[in-house]
């Protein structure tokens, strides 16, 4: 093989390898997106059904923290999540999460985040929007929930809305 032939063969091999890696990464990324999205839904459904075993199977066994919408609600580990579920269902008896809205996924090699809004109702009350932030950790090839925080966003109190209301009063 001539030098030119060798260079062409090496270039073709390199290009083929790079394309194979890129398509594998894209497939892996799509698989990871689908897996994280599915786990988000599974966790919400398990929580709403007070299915503690299903919820516990989805959390990172090494470390897990959840922040609720009240300043006093901070749970660590499986025991903390079980306490949240016990308290919530003692108070509510029933809960429901609607369809996930405004999902923003970020996927890395070992960590992924899923931020979203979701309609939530408990004890037969009218639904309200929860804004949820989750972080997922890949443990032995499986995405596990390691952090979660939620809040109930306000309506009509953003800086822009407040300023717009004040501007006419200043004139």
Description:
This protein has 171 residues and is an alpha+beta fold. The longest helix is centred in the N-terminal third of the chain and has 46 residues, at 3-48. It is built from four helices and seven strands. The protein is 47% helix and 29% strand. The relative contact order is 0.12. The protein is globular.
**Percent of residues in β-strands:** 25-35%
Distance between the termini: 84 Å
Shape: globular
Can you summarize the main beta sheet?
7 strands, mixed
Briefly note the structural class of the backbone: alpha+beta
Count of individual beta strands: 7
Mean pLDDT reading:
87
Number of helices: 4
Low-confidence stretches: 10-25
Q: What is the string of SSEs from the N terminus onward?
A: HHEEHEEEEEH
Helix content: 40-55%
Compute the CA-based radius of gyration: 23 Å
Question: Can you give me a brief rundown of this structure?
Answer:
47% of the residues lie in helices and 29% in strands.
Salient structural properties:
alpha+beta; seven-stranded mixed β-sheet; 7 strands; 171 residues
């Amino acid at each position: 093989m001539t030098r030119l032939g060798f260079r062409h063969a090496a270039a073709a091999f390199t290009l083929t390898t790079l394309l194979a890696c890129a398509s594998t990464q894209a497939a892996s990324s799509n698989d990871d997106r689908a897996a994280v999205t599915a786990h988000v839904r599974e966790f919400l459904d398990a929580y709403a059904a007070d299915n503690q075993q299903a919820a516990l199977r989805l959390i990172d066994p090494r470390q897990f923290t959840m922040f609720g919408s009240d300043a006093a609600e901070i749970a660590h580990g499986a025991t903390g999540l079980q306490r949240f579920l016990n308290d919530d269902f003692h108070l509510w008896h029933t809960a429901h999460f609607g369809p996930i809205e405004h999902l923003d996924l970020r996927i890395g090699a070992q960590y992924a985040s899923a931020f979203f809004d979701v309609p939530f109702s408990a004890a037969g009350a009218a639904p309200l929007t929860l804004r949820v932030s989750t972080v997922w950790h890949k443990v032995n090839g499986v995405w596990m929930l390691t952090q979660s925080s939620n809040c109930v966003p306000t309506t009509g109190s953003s800086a822009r809305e407040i300023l717009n209301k004040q501007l006419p009063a200043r004139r």
